[in-house]
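Quick one, tokens below. Sequence please?
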């Protein structure tokens, strides 16, 4: 894995009939070939997976250390003393972190926990009660300490239940905070540890096509390192997510990485957003589903030059998953998915995973998470191979 103390992206391949692409991202901690799924390490760890596990699932890049949660615990002094998130997590590959903007949306639903003003958001520390004021300045400063290769401009994630007025208010703040984030970042584009950091801006606008297009024009004009597409609707409502990607496609610069935030409920979501022009994505769902007994199960089938994650015909499968807690698996000696090359499927049976799940074993969580994340990365690998055949 080659690396230089710089960030740049290069379009490598395009699909002939849809909007899928392969982009090479070069970062100080190595290269990433898109499409690329980012497992999420919100609190400085990906649930139940070691860095070695992540490498064996073919993960190239992770989302490591949510800015809000790192500010809350353990605090930036601890992160800085560790030499940043790469050293703290022992993950020496590319990493993206977020700005805390999602918590501006999610926690402000309770005004006793978070209040938004024009400068940023005031959060009440859940343990000490101390007020944390998250602004473009403090968000970027914290991301410099976190030290991720890709950092995000501070934004306000657009709620879907507030109508056009809420979408316009979030858009105005997001654009203003973007300019302030850029100004802070440009004072020193490196992390506290001397590594060049890429800054991505976030397109908001909710489910309103004119606001999305207006936001895209504004964000693109800032000539950032990459473009993110955010808001509550992205990843949560997949038909609307794909519609928004189609609205934006004519505006998005080809050489810039496109990040759909919070996408990845299952492998099919990745296949869909890539076909509509997305490059990278993150979601907690693969590990969360695994912990709760929902394991991805299906085959990647080529249909009309693209891929579909197809169920095999069996009454035991539901929406591309099996529910390992079911008693039908108690004596099933097959792997989760026959033909799967993940460590779990190569070494353990459904019966053993069923037993571990019923025993509430932490080993179950690790083995299950390995499988689900591997399937997400396999989806990305299959898409790259289809595009290499196309060219």
């Amino acid at each position: 894995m080659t690396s230089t103390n710089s960030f740049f992206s290069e379009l490598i391949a395009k699909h002939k009939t849809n909007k899928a692409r392969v982009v090479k991202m070069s970062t100080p901690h190595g290269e990433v070939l898109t499409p690329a799924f980012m497992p999420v390490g919100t609190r400085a760890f990906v649930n139940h997976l070691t860095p070695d596990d992540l490498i064996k699932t073919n993960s190239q890049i992770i989302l490591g250390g949510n800015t809000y949660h790192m500010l809350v615990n353990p605090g930036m002094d601890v992160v800085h003393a560790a030499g940043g998130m790469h050293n703290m997590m022992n993950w020496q590959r590319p990493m993206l972190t977020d700005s805390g903007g999602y918590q501006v949306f999610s926690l402000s639903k309770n005004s006793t926990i978070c209040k938004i003003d024009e400068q940023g958001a005031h959060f009440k520390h859940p343990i000490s009660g101390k007020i944390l004021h998250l602004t473009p300045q403090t968000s970027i400063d914290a991301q410099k300490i976190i030290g991720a290769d890709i950092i995000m401009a501070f934004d306000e994630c657009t709620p879907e239940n507030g109508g056009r007025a809420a979408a316009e208010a979030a858009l105005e703040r997001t654009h203003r905070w973007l300019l302030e984030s850029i100004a802070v970042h440009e004072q020193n584009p490196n992390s506290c540890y001397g590594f060049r950091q890429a800054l991505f801006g976030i397109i908001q606008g909710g489910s309103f096509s004119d606001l999305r297009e207006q936001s895209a024009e504004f964000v693109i004009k800032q000539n950032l390192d990459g473009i993110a597409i955010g808001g509550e609707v992205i990843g949560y409502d997949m038909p609307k997510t794909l519609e928004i990607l189609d609205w934006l496609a004519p505006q998005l610069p080809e050489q810039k990485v496109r990040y759909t935030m919070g996408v990845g409920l299952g492998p099919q979501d990745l296949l869909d957003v890539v076909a509509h022009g997305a490059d990278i994505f993150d979601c907690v769902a693969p590990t969360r589903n695994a912990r709760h007994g929902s394991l991805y199960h299906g085959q990647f089938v080529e249909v009309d030059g693209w891929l579909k994650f197809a169920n095999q015909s069996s009454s035991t499968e539901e929406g591309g998953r099996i529910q390992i807690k079911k008693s039908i698996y108690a004596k099933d000696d097959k792997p989760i998915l026959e033909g799967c090359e993940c460590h779990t499927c190569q070494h353990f049976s459904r019966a053993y995973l069923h037993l571990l799940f019923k025993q509430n074993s932490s080993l179950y969580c690790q083995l299950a998470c390995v499988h689900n994340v591997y399937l997400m990365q396999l989806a990305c690998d299959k898409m790259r191979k289809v595009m290499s055949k196309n060219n």
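The two ends are 24 Å apart (CA to CA). The first strand starts at residue 8 and ends at 14.
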